[in-house]
Amino acid sequence: MSDKKFVIPMPVRYVINTVLLVVFLVAANAVMQSGALGRAQTAIIIQIGFFIILAVSLNIVTGYLGQLPLGHAGFMAVGAYAGAIFWRAGMLPGAANMIMGFFVAGIVAAIFGLLIGIPALRFKGDYLAIITLGFGEIIRVLLNNLDWLTNGARGLLGIPRYSNFLVVYICVIITCAFIHVMMKSRHGRAILSIRDNEIAAESCGVNTVYYKVAAFVVSAFFAGIAGALFAGNFGILIPGDFDFMMSINILMIVVLGGLGSMFGSIVAAAVLTYLPFALQSSESVAFLADYRMIIYSLLLILMMIFKPSGLMGSYDFSMSRILEKIINFVIEKKGGKKDVAS
Prior knowledge:
- By secondary structure, this protein is mostly helical.
- It folds into two domains: about 1-30 and about 310-340, no CATH class; about 40-290, ABC transporter involved in vitamin B12 uptake, BtuC (Orthogonal Bundle).
- Helices cover about 75% and strands about 0% of the residues.
- Helix 2 (about 40-65) packs parallel to helix 7 (about 165-185).
- The chain starts with 9 loop residues before the first helix and ends with a helix.
């Protein structure tokens, strides 16, 4: 009986994952189009989508790089307003206007990420958190006061409703795929080495400043796209939507999902977005509706006490890895039967 394990080649892994994602997307979109779910459930599922993008993008800096920024809502706000203003201008026809709006949102947020990342990432821990928190608040105050551009506290109205289920989850898949490939590359390994030991990484020739800023810029880029999806979902933008608590909520999703686990961020985004809605709307627990935020907070506290590594720890889901285990299990069973027969 051979000890060799069956291993799916990497190109085949990507093909399998791509096919499964396409099948999931088509099937889920068919369910959404059929009207099987109510408007409230549909809205929650769409919100889960852009919270997934926010969480996995923040995970680049918190989980993979090991830093603690508290201004992710600021990048989301910049992207939301940049994309919304571009869409309202209507410079391009139809779908081209929508797609270019997402690029504009991401690029403008990335530029802000570069501007804040170069000075901020020279600091660590609490200092970085305070600087990025200040950045987020500055963005919110500016959006409140730039009436000629953002319509101030009254809110930016008339934003095209581009964010449906298909658009949101195509962006989710592209974001997750890009970050996954990036973290599996040599650039991703360099970022992980900085998290593990920055001094050792620098002594081995890793340009720590470059990779820290690059991670910050990529994180901001996808936060900007999530902001554009947010704008295209609600059709109105108010600066108060991007306050300090939004940054905390995104960070909470990352921590509860597991630092450095993309799958954990996806699961936590789904759970934490749906949980308040479930506690509020379910008839079986209607008597708990008035206490839903207390229950929500208690669940978070218990999670941190009993599983501080998060829901998934550092685990990352892979369908091809599961297929490998199934195939190897079948091979072992067949091999075992042959040995008994012989």
